[in-house]
Amino acid sequence: MYPSGMRRLAPQAWLRALLNPQNTLEIALFGHVTVQPDWRIPPRTLDEHLIYFVTRNTCVGRAAGRRIEVAGPALAWLQPGTPHRLAHPPGGRPIDVYHLRFRLRAGRSALALRQEPLVLPGGPALYNQIDALYDEYTAELPHGQVRQRALLAGLLALACRGLAGADPGRRTLTDGQRRRLADLVARRRRMDLTAADLADHVGLSHDYFTRLFRQTYGQAPRTWLVHQRVRLAAQRLIESPQTITQIAHELGYADLFQFSRQFKRIMGQPPREYRRRH
């Protein structure tokens, strides 16, 4: 069942509609959770846009009649009226996921993309954008919806850019290879990994792996590893009673100043401030 009066637009037209203050934006739900192996969303069809941004591990399901796999970091964007169901894969690890539901209307018409369900790799830019949007949404500041609309537009512009740049003929790492890399990073707490270690782990030559990696994530393996280590540090700052120095050393940083500098560059605030706010 599809919403009545829905208009389907090309990505650029949809983004212009999102930025138009005369159109109505309503964020119905926005959360950030860790889900366990018994988690599942039963079959359903909603009249809202659904964003699932998986930052750790993998969820699987079906949308619009086809199988989807969201192997973190990755973003799934389901259009209004899309039949879907999602679940934790058998034997999988806990999944960290942002989940966002919103509506966009021009008068009485709901606005959606023409595309089928969209699943894209999620690099640091997407992660930082959705994290900033989540902070803005939970802060409940005056004029917050103006900033939320701008941040949401930035997030979805990145997603649409990934859609526009998708080339079915271009080789990328498979979902299984990406999942194996994510599992390796999760196990190696000291993060003393190199690009060669990643290539060996998925059984590819270094040069070929680096090329596929850039085509998959839009960045070099070394840069990706730095971002993974900082995101793991952010998680430890929230969950662990250890001091900042202890966490930095646990993750392989010999220099606390270097850790703080990298953390602020990627997360937008120093470790101490990040821990206080979260």
What does this protein look like?
It contains ten helices and eleven strands. The protein has helices at 11-19, 124-139, 144-164, 175-187, 195-201, 206-217, 221-239, 244-250, 256-267, 271-277; strands at 7-9, 24-35, 40-44, 49-56, 58-63, 66-71, 74-78, 84-87, 95-106, 109-113, 118-121. Strands 1, 2, 4, 7, 9, 10 and 11 form a seven-stranded mixed sheet that branches. Strands 3-8-5-6 form a four-stranded antiparallel sheet. Helix 7 (221-239) packs across helix 9 (256-267). The radius of gyration is 19 Å and the shape is globular. It starts with 6 loop residues before the first strand and ends with a helix. Residues 165-169 have low confidence and may be disordered.
